[in-house]
């Protein structure tokens, strides 16, 4: 990928982040996403703090927590939060029905808990993340290690091929001390049905299909933003 296309993607992410933070209100509890796109939102939130905004953040990963604290954002432990006013996070893929694939950064379990607690889940993305049908990006699945063989067998019954995510020649370990299986289901005709099937497999802590969890998606495209909103 050349530098020009990288700069275009970053510009689109930044435009989406700037539009998303406008929905944050004084004294909100704000879910802080994980990944390169959410990085821009956290930076924008830090700028708002300098201008007098008061919020408390709930991070979706240890990496996000460290970044937020370095920028002066006060954090709340996820286990103590009963509801979150607004969350700004990214996605690896999305469609216009607000279905997502998330978890490329490995934080999908915490991202899904935060999304489930959130009244207004806003996803920000560059235009390259929009697809007509989910599935080009493999579905990340966080698996309890002792259940790995069973889970991979069950994915096969769903016509999915699962591979353990590796990092530095060892299995990638999540913040929750689990492993990630990246599952290829091909193009997904019914994300809700596949999500339900994955929910029924013992040993899966969380999967990267996010269905009916998003209130709006803000996509940067060129020098503009496009908003996809639910009913």
From TrEMBL:
<dbReference type="GO" id="GO:0006014">
    <property type="term" value="P:D-ribose metabolic process"/>
</dbReference>
<dbReference type="InterPro" id="IPR004788">
    <property type="entry name" value="Ribose5P_isomerase_type_A"/>
</dbReference>
<comment type="pathway">
    <text>Carbohydrate degradation; pentose phosphate pathway; D-ribose 5-phosphate from D-ribulose 5-phosphate (non-oxidative stage): step 1/1.</text>
</comment>
<dbReference type="GO" id="GO:0009052">
    <property type="term" value="P:pentose-phosphate shunt, non-oxidative branch"/>
</dbReference>
<comment type="function">
    <text>Catalyzes the reversible conversion of ribose-5-phosphate to ribulose 5-phosphate.</text>
</comment>
<comment type="similarity">
    <text>Belongs to the ribose 5-phosphate isomerase family.</text>
</comment>
<comment type="subunit">
    <text>Homodimer.</text>
</comment>
<dbReference type="Pfam" id="PF06026">
    <property type="entry name" value="Rib_5-P_isom_A"/>
</dbReference>
<feature type="binding site">
    <location>
        <position position="129"/>
    </location>
    <ligand>
        <name>substrate</name>
    </ligand>
</feature>
<feature type="binding site">
    <location>
        <begin position="34"/>
        <end position="37"/>
    </location>
    <ligand>
        <name>substrate</name>
    </ligand>
</feature>
<dbReference type="GO" id="GO:0005829">
    <property type="term" value="C:cytosol"/>
</dbReference>
<dbReference type="InterPro" id="IPR020672">
    <property type="entry name" value="Ribose5P_isomerase_typA_subgr"/>
</dbReference>
<keyword id="KW-0413">Isomerase</keyword>
<feature type="active site" description="Proton acceptor">
    <location>
        <position position="111"/>
    </location>
</feature>
<feature type="binding site">
    <location>
        <begin position="102"/>
        <end position="105"/>
    </location>
    <ligand>
        <name>substrate</name>
    </ligand>
</feature>
<protein>
    <recommendedName>
        <fullName>Ribose-5-phosphate isomerase A</fullName>
        <ecNumber>5.3.1.6</ecNumber>
    </recommendedName>
</protein>
<dbReference type="InterPro" id="IPR037171">
    <property type="entry name" value="NagB/RpiA_transferase-like"/>
</dbReference>
<feature type="binding site">
    <location>
        <begin position="89"/>
        <end position="92"/>
    </location>
    <ligand>
        <name>substrate</name>
    </ligand>
</feature>
<dbReference type="GO" id="GO:0004751">
    <property type="term" value="F:ribose-5-phosphate isomerase activity"/>
</dbReference>
